[in-house]
Amino acid sequence: MAATAPDIAAPRAPRNRRTTRTNWELYGWLFMRASGVLLLILIFGHLFVNLMTGDGIQQIDFAFVAGKLSSPFWQTWDLLMLWLAMIHGTNGVRTIINDYAERIGTRVVLKSALYLAFTITVTLGTLVIFTFDPCPPGSPDDLLPALCFD
Predict the structure, then answer these.
(1) CA atoms of 29 and 42, how far apart (whole Å)
(2) Do residues 145 and 63 lie in contact, with contact meaning Cβ atoms separated by under 8 Å?
(3) Residue 108's domain spans which residues?
(4) Burial 3-31 (b: 16+ CB within 10 A, else e)
(5) DSSP per-residue letters across 62-111
(6) Given 7, 8, 48, 132, which residue has the most CB atoms within 10 angstroms?
(7) CA-based nearest residue to 74, from 64, 84, 59
(8) In a domain? residue 139
(9) Number of C-alpha atoms within 13 angstroms, CB side, residue 66?
(10) Is residue 60 a part of any domain in this protein?
(11) Is residue 124 part of a domain?
(12) What is the pLDDT of residue 149?
């Protein structure tokens, strides 16, 4: 009769704290796919309206842009395009920094510059979209476009 090994349970691996947290990298990966598809729709819609309808590229001037930015629909469209493109691009560059910046100090500097550029661009772009006024009151007449006098 052969001796059998006692039935002893294998030691449990220590519980990893990371498995109990939210998986931000998974959400970032999912966001990149979803925002990429939505950006394709937004960008091709933008290009179609600006280049294929009406007189094509000849119609794009200050009055055309002023007309688009006065519409809440196009403000929302442009805002979505700006925010999604900036978040999508920032997340992509952040991933590249994580992959290729070997030193922690380099990584911190690059990510800080990236987040600063993101913040400035999104803030200024959002302000332009919502505060654009082609005919500001009190401006000299010789500086105003012709559409302000119609």
Answers:
(1) 20
(2) yes
(3) 31-133
(4) eeeeeeeeeeeeeeeeeeeeeeeeeeeee
(5) HHHHHHHHTSHHHHHHHHHHHHHHHHHHHHHHHHHHHHH--SHHHHHHHH
(6) 132
(7) 64
(8) no
(9) 12
(10) yes
(11) yes
(12) 77
Query: For 135, phi and psi rounded to 5 degrees?
Result: -125, 70
pTM of the model: 0.75
Q: What is the pLDDT of residue 96?
A: 94
pLDDT digits (tens, 9 = 90+) for 16-56: 555 556 788 888 889 999 999 999 999 999 999 888 887 88
Q: How many domains does the chain have?
A: 1
Look at residue 35 and tell me if it is in a domain.
yes
Residue 91: which of 28, 27, 35, 26 has the closest Cα? 28
Residues 126/82, Cβ–Cβ less than 8 Å: yes
Question: What CATH number corresponds to the domain at position 124?
Answer: 1.20.1300.10
CB atoms within 10 A of CB 38: 14
Helix or strand holding residue 43 (H, E) = helix 24-47
Arithmetic mean of pLDDT, 69-89: 94
